[in-house]
């Protein structure tokens, strides 16, 4: 394990270290107590029953009962501790992975499908938790059982104990052979589960177009295909698992034959008591059951290791937070781009050596054909993308050195696509920010968006359904405009913001922009001429690239 990976693993375990140690201590005590039972039975047979000693019979039975009760209590405590650790760890890991994902650059979401990201957060993290609060605990329990059972067996009969262990090298060889196979199968399972989540998510999200085109069979085929992939891989898993389990079961059967043959011979010769062979029979199961359990745990272990690796693939690449970044409350002069180059794919720059100067008090229109980098340029100015070369400066400060949270207060953006949440209109506008309700109402009145506050059916407390299906295109656009302007940003970016608005709303919106432009930078991305608004600077992205 690499140093960074070890650091992340340690950070996962650290908050639960004390509880883990207490749990391990209880496991050891519980294991010792449970392994005393066969020895107590040996004493009952060899001392109490053989000598017809009622006093010792009652004494050993009481001890047997006390051991059972104590073991049960310890198991309840152990179960509570590790259930708490598991649930709390799952919560923390999901939250940590979620925060890591949402802080990634936009390019991350271009490379990863939505279903895959959801699958990693929802489906795979329980396997990571299982590694620390399930599998690892089982390993400790089984190893402790194996060692203690071996010690007790060795004190009862050294020869049978040593002979029984001769099969362990063969068990190791079988496990060593099948480990990489199970690891590969589990990786494939996780990848297929990600595909299933993604196809299902796409089909549900695009349900309207499926219904419009009556493309039910097309959508079903896509879903059926990935389900068949899963079934085929499941058959492979069952086949390999059955072979490995058959081999291991045969190896576990050999010690029982040795005990019956050699142990029975020693009883006949008088070198071993009846109680001794009964106890050894129980302890052989206690000795090899952990080995058998470890072989089954091994399958879960390989699955958990793959899930952990996929978790670290995301959180392990997080950028360290800067402690010396600059908190910027206001731009005094301009935004400048100096020789900015950006590409999504190597050797295919969408923006090439671009230099711009965007000044306070100006309304700037950025034009250009589709796919020429207009929206990409905005993402770079907002800090969502990092250019391969060149510098973006707010006044004379490199955007890389500006605190990201102060940057978001400076910028208000209306994206080309509408993004809404299943919540109230007011919550969709505020987005968790401390914005007074009166500010929203006043802004609606200034912009002429009165249908969002005075309508009999619709108001700021109305719930937006999935994807805003209960709103018109114009109402959705108005909400995104209010969202962008509600916190009074100094930089206003409008990506095809007039789309879906009626002429009355367009005119009011443009008049408002003209009124507030004095201390702001207003950037409009539009294919067409902007009505009702005087543009101070027109920039064609294609012509601006050197």
CATH architecture of the largest domain: Up-down Bundle
**Could you give a short account of the major beta sheet?**
5 strands, parallel
Order of helices and strands: HHHHHHHHHHEEEHEEHEHHHEHEEH
Helix coverage percent of residues?
55-70%
CATH fold-level topology of the largest domain: ABC transporter transmembrane region fold
Number of folding domains? 2
Strand content: 5-15%
GO molecular function: ABC-type oligopeptide transporter activity; ATP binding; ATP hydrolysis activity
Organism: Aceticella autotrophica
Subcellular location: Cell membrane
Main location: membrane
Attribute tags:
Rossmann fold; 2 domains; ABC transporter transmembrane region fold; 64% helix; 546 residues; 5-stranded parallel β-sheet; alpha/beta; 10% strand
Short description:
The protein is α/β, with parallel strands linked by helices and 546 residues long. The chain has helices spanning 3-13, 17-49, 54-102, 106-111, 114-156, 158-164, 168-205, 207-212, 216-269, 274-315, 374-381, 404-410, 425-430, 437-447, 473-485, 503-516, 541-544, and strands at residues 334-345, 348-359, 363-367, 389-394, 397-398, 411-414, 491-495, 521-525, 537-540.
């Amino acid at each position: 394990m690499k140093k960074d990976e070890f650091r992340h693993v340690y950070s996962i375990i650290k908050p639960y270290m004390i509880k883990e140690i207490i749990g391990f201590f209880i496991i050891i005590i519980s294991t010792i107590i449970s392994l005393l039972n066969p020895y107590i039975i040996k004493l009952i047979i060899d001392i109490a029953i053989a000598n017809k000693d009622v006093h010792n019979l009652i004494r050993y039975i009481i001890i047997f009962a006390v051991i059972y009760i104590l073991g049960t209590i310890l198991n309840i405590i152990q179960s509570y501790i590790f259930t708490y650790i598991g649930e709390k760890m799952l919560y923390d890991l999901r939250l940590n992975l979620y925060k890591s994902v949402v802080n990634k650059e936009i390019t991350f979401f271009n490379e990863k499908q939505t279903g895959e990201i959801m699958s990693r957060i929802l489906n795979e993290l329980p396997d990571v938790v299982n590694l620390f609060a399930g599998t690892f605990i089982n390993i400790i329990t089984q190893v402790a059982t194996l060692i203690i059972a071996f010690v007790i067996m060795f004190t009862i009969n050294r020869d049978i104990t040593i002979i029984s262990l001769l099969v362990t090298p063969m068990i190791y060889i079988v496990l060593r052979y099948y480990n990489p196979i199970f690891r590969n199968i589990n990786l494939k399972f996780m990848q297929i589960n990600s595909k299933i989540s993604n196809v299902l998510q796409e089909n549900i999200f695009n349900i309207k177009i499926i219904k419009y085109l009556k493309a039910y069979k097309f959508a079903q085929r896509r879903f059926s295909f990935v389900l068949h992939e899963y079934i085929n891989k499941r058959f492979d898993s069952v086949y390999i698992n059955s072979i490995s389990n058959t081999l291991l079961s045969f190896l576990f059967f050999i010690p029982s034959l040795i005990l019956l043959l050699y142990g029975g011979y020693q009883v006949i010769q008088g070198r071993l008591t009846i109680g001794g062979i009964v106890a050894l029979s129980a302890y052989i199961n206690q000795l090899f059951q952990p080995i058998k359990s470890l072989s089954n745990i091994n399958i879960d272990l390989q699955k958990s290791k793959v899930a952990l690796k996929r978790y670290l693939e995301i959180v392990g690449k997080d950028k360290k937070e800067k402690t010396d970044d600059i908190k910027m409350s206001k731009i005094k002069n301009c935004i400048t781009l100096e020789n900015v180059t950006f590409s999504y794919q190597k050797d295919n720059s969408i923006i090439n050596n671009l230099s711009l100067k965007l000044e306070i008090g100006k309304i700037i229109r950025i034009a250009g054909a589709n796919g020429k980098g207009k929206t990409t340029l905005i993402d770079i100015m907002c800090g969502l993308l990092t250019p391969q070369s060149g510098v973006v400066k707010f006044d004379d400060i490199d955007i890389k050195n500006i605190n990201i949270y102060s940057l978001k207060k400076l910028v208000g953006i209306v994206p080309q696509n509408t993004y809404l949440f299943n919540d109230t209109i007011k919550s969709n506008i505020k987005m968790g920010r401390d914005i007074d309700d009166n500010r929203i109402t006043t802004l609606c009145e200034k912009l002429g968006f009165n249908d969002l506050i005075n309508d009999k059916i619709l108001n700021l407390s109305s719930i937006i359904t999935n994807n805003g299906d209960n709103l018109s295109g114009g109402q959705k656009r108005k909400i995104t405009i209010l969202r962008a302007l509600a916190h009074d940003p100094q930089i206003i970016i409008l990506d095809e913001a007039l789309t879906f608005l009626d002429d009355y709303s367009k005119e009011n919106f443009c008049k408002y922009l003209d009124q507030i432009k004095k201390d702001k930078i207003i950037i409009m991305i539009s294919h067409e001429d902007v009505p009702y608004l005087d543009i101070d600077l027109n920039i064609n992205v294609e012509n601006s690239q050197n």
